[in-house]
């Protein structure tokens, strides 16, 4: 963007020339004996004016960077002036000054990245740095895949419905305020979870809500929307979300639609019933009159890989008919969840405690083993999609089991002289958790095909953490440290799947527009100064499945709301992050 004629640079030069003129005039007057006293006073006035003009024009100036505005257009080498939390000027600032000046020559200067699905909800309460994401240029983390940190009732505060032990909040807005007050480096936003409002009224029961219960669920969604939720999020392969039918989801989505929210869903299937699940999402969107997005679009399981073309075609058909359907994704061929995704939903009814107790019943165990081994369209069996060689255990609560991290169920079955399905059940019982698990399910060809789609944005679907302390006890999916850097390194620079301009658009303005965010997602005067500065030639992810605790490199500086949170590859210790609420300006 070119500097306007009467921009800050113009006035800077005008003040400079005026100060010179006044100083010269004072000196001339001083040479006249009768004018010496008054000229001294005049000179003092001049000095005051000059001193006033020397005050920095901006808090921050980013100079000579290759500025990508977020719209997908070619970069422009120019300067950006930041005042307080806002981009105040874009153009030539060579004659202006700032408290902090950064030479961005040769670097890409872009809007901060938006993580469409973050699981940092619990981590940020303990460590507000969000180092894994900040090191990749993420400035906004969006929560709410089915579960949200509000609304909570007393039972939910102690039954594992929150990712934080004994949460002090009740509503979603109170949770976001807790993060702000505690100090966070990224901005945060959240959907209200359809699973959460269901548990609030029905617990973990496998039944439809009564009319009164549904009305109360809708009231909870309304409350969250009025508190600033982005919309309604669902996660339909997991119990108890699996128990909700389409009509229930539509009724909840109608409430979110009243506030121009979005319905975003981990669909009921990403494998055998992918196309049917997609149809459910499109139907829900149409019937509720709401925009919709597919969480982490994929075709899971080799037999289902060809279905991605039909899924893409169906989404584009819906879009051509006027429905606003979008999707997001992560940049890996493996997903991560728990061993609950390898077991039928009926055995999980009532919550984890009842699930574990049932697994210890020999008759129920035998039935579960049979269903784990039997192909079905009735529920999403990620274990069959990946196969035992493609199921890696990565997270345990019990120290005594952590030596197993990084092994597959196939390897463990051989070591123990049993079956992979038996190993899965034994681990859930022994650890008293769902057990963190990576499933290798997707094809690299499909990943590239999806990245190229114009309506795809990106998510990590992971926590954001620092590679230190307690975090090192378990292995997260490498996307926790590398998802966004991997896009820019592997798929943009190294393989040219999309251009850097398009990648920036899909990381910034596209998700901002989908979420209806004001003043974020673009580098424009008047927008919040959420900015990432990196070297496109060196940015790189390093996290692997075997050694995931490795920060990405190549990100030079990150600003959130005008404050520098990342400098020369290190966190600054600043916590300027805010709750981003639906509809705020």
What would you say this structure looks like, in words?
This protein is of the alpha/beta class. It is built from 19 helices and 21 strands. The strands form four sheets. Strands 1, 2, 3, 4, 5, 18, 19, 20 and 21 form a nine-stranded mixed sheet that branches. It has a six-stranded parallel sheet with strand order 9-10-11-12-13-17. Helix 10 links the parallel strand 12 and strand 13. Helix 9 packs parallel to helix 10. The chain is globular. The N terminus is likely disordered.
Features:
single chain; 585 residues; alpha/beta; nine-stranded mixed beta sheet; disordered N terminus
Mean pLDDT: 92
Number of strands: 21
Distance between the termini: 23 Å
Q: How would you describe the oligomerization state of the chains in this entry?
A: single chain
């Amino acid at each position: 963007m070119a500097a306007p004629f009467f921009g800050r640079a113009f006035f800077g030069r005008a003040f400079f020339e005026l100060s010179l003129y006044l100083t010269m005039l004072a000196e001339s007057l001083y040479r006249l004996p009768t004018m010496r006293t008054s000229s001294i006073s005049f000179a003092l006035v001049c000095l005051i004016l000059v001193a006033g003009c020397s005050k920095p024009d901006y808090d921050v100036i980013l100079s000579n960077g290759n500025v990508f505005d977020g719209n997908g257009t070619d970069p422009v080498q120019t300067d950006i002036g930041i005042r307080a939390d806002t981009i105040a000027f874009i153009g030539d600032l060579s004659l202006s000054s700032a408290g902090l000046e950064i030479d961005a020559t040769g670097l890409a200067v872009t809007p901060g990245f938006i993580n469409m699905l973050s699981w940092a909800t619990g981590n940020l309460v303990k460590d507000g740095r969000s180092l894994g994401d900040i090191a990749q240029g993420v400035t906004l983390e969006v929560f709410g895949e089915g579960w949200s940190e509000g609304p909570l009732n007393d039972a939910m505060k102690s039954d594992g419905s929150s990712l934080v032990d004994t949460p002090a909040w009740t509503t979603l807005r109170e949770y976001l305020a807790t993060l702000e007050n505690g100090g966070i480096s990224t901005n945060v936003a959240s959907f209200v979870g359809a699973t959460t409002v269901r548990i609030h009224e029905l617990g973990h029961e496998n039944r439809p809500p009564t009319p009164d219960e549904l009305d109360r669920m809708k009231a909870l969604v309304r409350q969250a929307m009025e508190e600033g939720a982005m919309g309604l999020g669902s996660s339909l392969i997991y119990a108890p979300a699996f128990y909700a039918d389409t009509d229930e989801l539509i009724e909840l989505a109608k409430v979110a639609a009243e506030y121009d929210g979005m319905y975003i869903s981990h669909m009921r299937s990403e494998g055998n019933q992918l196309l049917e699940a997609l149809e459910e999402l499109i139907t829900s969107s149409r019937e509720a009159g709401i925009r919709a997005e597919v969480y982490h679009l994929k075709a899971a399981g080799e037999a289902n890989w060809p279905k991605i073309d039909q899924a893409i075609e169906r989404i584009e058909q819906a879009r051509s008919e006027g429905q606003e359907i979008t999707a997001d994704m992560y940049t890996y061929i493996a997903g991560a969840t728990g061993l609950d995704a390898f077991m039928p939903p009926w055995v999980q009814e009532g919550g984890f405690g009842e699930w574990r107790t049932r697994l210890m019943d020999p008759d129920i165990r035998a039935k579960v083993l049979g269903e784990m081994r039997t192909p079905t369209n009735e529920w999403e069996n990620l274990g069959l999609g990946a196969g035992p060689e493609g199921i890696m255990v990565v997270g345990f609560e019990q120290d005594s089991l952590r030596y197993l991290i990084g092994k597959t169920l196939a390897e463990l079955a051989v070591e123990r002289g049993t079956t992979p399905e038996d190993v899965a059940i034994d681990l859930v019982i022994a650890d008293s958790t769902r057990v963190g698990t990576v499933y290798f399910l997707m094809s690299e060809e499909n990943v590239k095909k999806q990245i190229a789609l114009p309506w795809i944005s990106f998510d990590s679907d992971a926590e954001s953490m620092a590679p230190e302390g307690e975090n090192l006890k378990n292995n997260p999916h490498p996307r926790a440290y590398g998802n966004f850097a991997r896009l820019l390194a592997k798929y943009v620079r190294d393989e040219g799947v999309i251009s850097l301009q398009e990648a920036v658009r899909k990381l910034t303005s596209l998700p901002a527009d989908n979420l209806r965010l004001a003043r974020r997602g673009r580098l424009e005067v008047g927008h919040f100064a959420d900015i990432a500065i990196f070297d496109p030639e060196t940015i790189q992810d390093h996290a692997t499945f075997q050694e995931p605790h490795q920060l990405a490199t190549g990100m030079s500086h990150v600003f959130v709301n005008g404050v520098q949170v990342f400098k020369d590859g290190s966190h600054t210790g600043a916590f300027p992050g805010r709750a981003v609420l639906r509809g705020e300006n």
